[in-house]
């Protein structure tokens, strides 16, 4: 390791805050603020439209201000990062995309159970009866289900009917009188790129990959309501192509229990996530690669299994394949909620061979947060995988209500503004250090998000008494995964998460090790779970047969792709170590099976709670970053 570079890293590694552009812009004031940011140890900022903006978004005044900021960046060794939306979430160009035609508006299949005697609602420009079923049930479980035409659903009022309406998202002032865009529709992203990315390239493309390193996407999502499946008219055909199954035969089991509930739920959730990735994330990634700029930012609701299933259809790690700089959002002062958030993105980046990981950080920690608080939260994200901080936020102006825009504020209005440089120097050095060499990690924990998806039942709107949306399985596996991860990390071991899509695309058994992309593991941990993909089972069998160390924690899986196959898992477990999902016993198992490169304990030999380590090898140097993150 070159210690001089640790003392004075390239300015690229300095934190770059959300620069909240929320007033009428002038080149003079924009240049002054950019110079101010450089003076306190920031590298510049993400030029981010926020509530209160008076200047026309992407208008002449907007770009005049950006050019002024770029001049200061060139002179002061700073950077200006782009942001891809007018407000947020991304994908809509301030409402312009959804305003083109209804087909581009966010849409859902809303489920309603009609009691005998009730008639379906009439079709309107906002709502259309898309599918209907004559049903018989025992509570929430279907005992008979037959597809009928919309006309029959209106005529046959003497029985219960499940009807599915295609409804568009509500038009709101947030989107200038339009609704959110449908990110499952591939043409939506084409239009979004034309209206945003192409405009930026035409105006500022000469600096792409130079003083403009990347563009931030913010909280893209597909969720509408507890009783609504995210919808795109091409989804049934894609579903048939990808699974060989009939979408319309499977979809009732998203809302009711029955014989086909688990494979139907699993495959439909999987299809939604795949369509989201292929329609939105992948085209943006390809555009950014072609234009020599990094796609970065974060996806909505990364923190828990239920939230990922709700907003994406499955695990958020799938999107990280399509970011040159994968990123997350760490809101509020809570740390442990973000355990999965940090480990997911850090693991994905390592496996993809990408050195940089962004964290949007400090948002909603309030104006009262302290330097100690900033350092603790920053340490948490950095030790668990982040390398580059995007502090939330730097207010162009704090006039009026703007000062309440999810503070704290890092700008001239803040009392400690001129004292920030030592803190930013610390984050810069540490972020640089976490990109040097290679991670020394031996343990991978498989990600059980699909066990949660297979158990997710949507709600049904009805005048009849029915239970609401059911995320019990996802909540359970989320808690068990956190317990497993916490036990390993608190015992002083590094570990990564292994997503099943990554296993399918980049997984291979090499001797007694499992490789996922750029990282090879000697210990594979299967946390409490219900179902895994056939390819995952095949890899684990091969790994165990080759003498790899396989550990099952807690309850064994009982399915493959949602279909019963407990015997296959019992047979595999006979060639593995099995331990209860107890922090003490999981930690003890790691002490037995994990390579002992180092040992992290207190003077009495006990585990130190909330103390994590990142271990890297840089040539002959061994780098350890140890952080106590107990707030």
Helical content, roughly?
25-40%
| Shape call | globular
How many strands, what sense, and barrel or not for the largest sheet? 6 strands, parallel
Which radius of gyration do the C-alpha atoms yield?
Answer: 25 Å
Low-confidence parts: none
Please give the structural blueprint.
Layout: H1 3-7, E1 18-21, H2 27-39, E2 44-49, H3 60-76, E3 79-86, E4 107-114, E5 127-138, E6 141-148, H4 150-155, E7 161-168, H5 186-204, E8 214-218, E9 228-230, H6 235-243, H7 247-250, H8 261-290, E10 294-298, H9 305-312, H10 317-320, E11 327-330, H11 339-352, E12 358-361, H12 371-383, E13 388-391, E14 394-395, H13 421-433, E15 438-439, E16 443-446, H14 449-454, E17 461-462, H15 472-490, E18 495-498, H16 500-506, E19 507-510, E20 513-516, E21 519-521, E22 523-526, E23 531-532, H17 534-545, E24 549-553, E25 559-560, E26 563-564, H18 566-573, E27 577-579, H19 583-593, E28 611-618, E29 621-628
Parallel strand pairs: 1-2, 1-14, 2-3, 3-8, 4-17, 8-10, 11-12, 12-13, 16-18, 16-22, 22-24, 23-25, 24-27
Antiparallel strand pairs: 4-7, 4-9, 5-6, 5-7, 15-28, 19-20, 20-21, 25-26, 28-29
Helix pairs in contact: 2-3, 5-8, 6-8, 12-13, 15-19
